[in-house]
Design goal:
Chain B: Its main location: membrane. The complex is a heterodimer. Chain A is an alpha/beta fold. Chain A is built from 18 helices and 22 strands. Classes of the chains: A alpha/beta, B mainly alpha.
Chain lengths: 504, 317
């Protein structure tokens, strides 16, 4: 039977935001349907509706022409829809076969004893069918990310799924694993599996997908057979202008080079990246996930060693892996992409969170100067316009935007010379975004060098004095304010404008 | 398989055998049949507690109550025996009480999401207090009669009945852990509760079951304690038993943060603790130094384990 799912007129609002607006989307057995769009375009929301994670406000979902209800993830599973997330849902300490049959084990006759032989045999048969060389008895922890992904897909196939949604499946894969995944996807197509493939990588999309759909601001703006469209057309429809209440101030940047990175190379993460950053300049590194920018930033902050090339800061070459304590002493600050994990101490107060990196400087004779700390904390809260009932408030009760402001405010004292920001506005609402952009500009005006990693093209263009695009760990091109060509940048990020060297 | 690999993957076996050789060289009596037999009887309560604790730890939890709970159950058995002179009713009371206590702990941990550390620490103090309430400090109840004699000293083919009971329970646990869906469920929960739920596992029910089993193991350990000694008193060092049992589990290669462990490893860990305890007695190590030496030996064993594990990690990367 040729299964198909049709989502018709899907609408979804979160408070005042229209996340999905009258969206039609279909998936047909034996085809790969690529779904693309910038961050916040509504791709994940649409897939969450399909997966039963959130409920639509309007529209119908039809399976082979019959309306179906998907009220919970279990309904999606029942109708044969499986989601493969970037974070795997496998159990590391169980074997491949145990993972695939977890929760639906086979037993010997009517006994409670597991039929391990039969489970291994069926997994083996599936692996053989797709020409995969994996041992069903090896623990999942010994597998690399590509193999884990395939185990996850096989688990979905073996629980009678016919439609598989893959969210950026290649972001963590090596070249070799990618090729294997594409081979696997082609085999699945031939076996009549439908695939929805979320990606930004144009070469991948045009390599394996039959249909490509572009979303922007919660609407479908293009849906075409890949044979009838081009990479350039897709990239062009992805971008749209977005107004915001932040205007970049005019300023002059000194010629004083603060940070000089030469030929930085680290196996698998980044290759031969060079750039410099002057005092008062905002330099944005951008690309897709997996472009290597976070790893670069961490090397500069002294968190990693084992790279080749040099990082000079204030004219001296830094020792690889010298540690964040040394970096902070030298006037560097960093705000990570994962606020809740690396940014804040959830159980501590707003005051303690702000004061933490400052304590060493506020200590005299082994004792902390409380008045000095209090002054710093009050100033930080004021300058970032953080909304908190008092400095004693536990930080975990604050909103995402306010938490992020506090992550920033830690670094606002006058000793700061270089600030590294990873995805500074991830998961933050528009108003808090404008506040954060304003703080960044103020710091730059004061002479702080700011190095930012951002995946959001509109933010990149709004904020940057200079932009370097990266693709798979290599720098593609450099742009200076105000000569930003959004379409060309997106093409850089998607691997469409690779420099000749990258092919060598 | 080269020596390095054996050391890494079966290091607890190697460490245990090396210790045996050292103890034998110091005191040849160590390896005598009589002494081995004595060890097999001594380790039964620790072994039972360790077995129950094994499942709790693999699931990512801990049960701190098991030691003092086993003392409480021993006291309970003694009281029933003292009041009625009958053993059956006492055994039944211990089984019912231990399953109930484990079930209550399980419900608090699974349903109310209270940390197991807090719940079982509270249970530890309650068990300790109640033992002292039932039999005032300094007093004891002597357990005389056929059953206690039988369960404590009877041998079959030269092997203590109580030891056979431990081995039998371990064998059953092995089958459940490796050949039923319960084992995979426990490992899954210890790795990631979220993913276990996604796979359709009833996480709450498994957790409650795990704590009921650890409660039952405390009950069995209490019964074995009372039969071995022939009397019960509330001042028994239950927490010492608990710490020995946890040490055995960790030495046996179970990750303290949960998600990984084997019954075979746990058995070697139990054997190791039993051997060290026995040897320190046998070698006439003064009581005060006994604990110090045990600390040193455990540190050495676990330290070697840890270093080997780290070298394996760095090899992998």
């Amino acid at each position: 039977m040729n299964n198909r799912i049709d989502m018709k007129g899907i609408g979804k609002s979160f408070f005042a935001t229209r996340a999905l607006d009258n969206v039609d989307f279909s998936s047909v057995a034996g085809e790969v349907h690529a779904l693309v769009g910038l961050n916040g375009a509504g791709k994940s929301t649409l897939m969450k509706v399909l997966g039963g994670v959130i409920q639509r406000d309007q529209g119908v979902i039809e399976l082979n022409g019959q309306p179906i209800e998907i009220a919970a993830p279990v309904d999606a599973t029942k109708h044969g829809v499986a989601m493969i997330h970037q974070e795997y849902s496998l159990i590391n300490e169980l074997t491949v076969a145990d993972n695939i049959f977890l929760g639906r084990e086979l037993f010997i006759g009517g006994t409670p004893f597991l039929n391990k032989r039969e489970m291994a045999r069926r997994v083996r048969a599936q692996l053989d069918r797709f020409g995969l060389d994996l041992d069903p008895a090896s623990p999942v922890r010994d597998l690399n990310s590509g193999e884990k992904q395939i185990v996850e897909i096989i688990r979905a196939l073996m629980s009678d799924s016919w439609l598989i949604v893959m969210d950026e499946p290649t972001s963590a894969l090596s070249e070799e694993d990618k090729e294997r995944l594409f081979g696997f996807i082609r085999r699945m197509k031939a076996e009549g599996v439908a695939i929805i493939y979320i990606s930004h990588h144009m070469p991948e999309i045009f390599g394996i997908a039959e249909q490509v759909t572009v979303m922007r601001d919660g609407k479908i703006v293009l849906s075409e057979r890949t044979s009838n469209t081009t990479e350039a057309a897709v990239i062009k429809t992805m971008t749209g202008t977005e107004l915001d209440d932040f205007v970049k101030p005019v300023k002059t940047i000194s010629d004083d080079v603060l940070l000089d990175v030469r030929g930085l190379t680290h196996a698998h993460a980044y290759q031969d990246v060079s750039f410099d950053l002057r005092r008062g300049e905002i330099l944005v590194l951008t690309g897709l996930r997996g472009c290597g920018a976070p790893e670069l930033a961490k090397a500069i902050f002294g968190l990693t060693s084992g790279y080749e090339g040099t990082i000079s800061y204030r004219g001296t070459t830094l020792r690889p892996g010298r540690g964040p304590a040394a970096a902070v002493r030298d006037g560097m600050g960093m705000v990570t992409e994962n606020r809740d994990k690396n940014g804040i101490m959830a159980a501590l107060s707003v005051r303690d969170n702000i004061a933490l990196p400052f304590l060493e400087k506020a200590t005299r004779g082994g004792l902390i100067n409380a008045a000095k700390v209090e002054a710093v904390v009050a100033k930080a809260i004021r300058e970032t316009s953080t909304k908190t009932s008092s400095p004693d408030q536990e930080i975990r009760f604050l909103s995402g935007g306010n938490k992020q402001k506090i992550c920033f405010s830690r670094w606002l004292d006058e000793d700061l010379e270089l600030l590294i920001l990873l995805e500074p506005t991830r998961g933050i609402d528009v108003h808090a975004k404008a506040d954060i952009y304003r703080i960044i500009e103020e710091l730059a005006t004061r002479g702080v060098g700011v190095l930012i990693l951002s995946y959001e093209i509109d933010e990149v263009i709004m904020l940057a004095d200079r932009v370097i695009t990266l693709y798979q760990g290599r720098s593609v091109a450099s742009y200076s304010h105000p000569d930003f060509d959004k379409d060309k940048m997106l093409a850089d990020m998607a691997g469409a404008n690779l420099p000749a060297a990258a092919h060598a | 398989m080269n020596i390095g690999k054996i050391l890494r993957e079966r290091n607890i076996i190697v460490v245990t055998l090396v210790c045996c050789v050292i103890f034998f060289l110091i005191s040849p009596r160590f390896l005598s049949v009589d002494n081995m037999s004595a060890i097999s009887r001594q380790i039964v309560p620790i072994g039972l507690i360790a077995l129950g604790q094994f499942f709790v730890i693999v699931s990512g939890n801990i049960d701190l109550s098991m030691g003092m709970a086993s003392v409480f159950f021993a006291v309970l058995l003694g009281v029933f025996f003292g009041l009625t002179g009958g053993v059956g009713i006492g055994l039944l009371a211990v089984v019912v009480a231990s399953l109930t206590m484990g079930g209550l702990i399980g419900v608090l941990v699974a349903k109310l999401k209270l940390p197991a550390f807090i719940v079982t620490l509270s249970a530890l103090f309650m068990a300790q207090g109640l033992s002292g309430l039932v039999i005032p400090r300094g007093q004891q109840i002597f357990l005389m009669g056929g059953f206690f004699q039988f369960a404590g000293s009877q041998k079959i083919f030269g092997i203590y009945l109580s030891f056979l009971f431990l081995i039998g329970l371990c064998a059953a646990a092995y089958v459940v852990y490796n050949h039923t869906r319960i084992g995979a469920a426990i490992i899954a929960i210890g790795n990631s509760e979220e993913n276990a739920k996604l796979a359709g596992i009833n996480v709450d029910r498994v957790k409650i079951g795990i704590f009921m089993f650890s409660g039952l193991c405390s009950g069995f350990a209490g019964i074995m304690l009372s039969t071995r000694m022939g009397f019960v008193q509330p001042g028994l060092d239950g927490n010492g038993l608990l710490l020995d049992a946890i040490a055995a589990i960790i030495i046996g290669g179970t990750l303290i943060q949960g998600g990984r462990g084997t019954i075979g490893g746990a058995l070697w860990g139990i054997a190791f603790i039993g051997i060290v305890n026995n040897a320190l007695n046998l070698l006439n190590v003064e009581d005060v130094w006994h604990q110090v030496f045990k600390g040193v030996v455990i540190l050495a064993a676990l330290g070697v384990n840890w270093l080997l594990w780290q070298s394996k990690q760095s090899e992998a990367h």
